[in-house]
From TrEMBL:
Biological processes, Gene Ontology terms: iron-sulfur cluster assembly
Xref: Gene3D superfamilies: Fe-S cluster assembly (FSCA) (3.30.300.130)
Name this protein carries in UniProt: Fe-S cluster biogenesis protein NfuA, 4Fe-4S-binding domain
Organism listed in the record: Pedobacter terrae
Highest taxon, organism lineage: Bacteria
Amino acid sequence: MNLTEEVEQALETIRPYLKADGGDVSVEEITAEGTVKLKLLGNCGSCPMSFMTMKSGIEQAIMKAVPQITSVVAVNMAEQE
């Protein structure tokens, strides 16, 4: 299993919760340094709680399941500020 597949597998553990609120997430890039760049989709992209969702849910799920990952960022969160 490659790194992208491992990250996707980790996301599957949290994806049902995101979809229940009308949102989702997609992997845009995994850098050589181990940073996962995600795009928050649907309601997650505009939700005021998206930062908390990223830190307490998505980031923890990925970093726990895939130790090679050093950070997780949302590429579209800055657009919401």
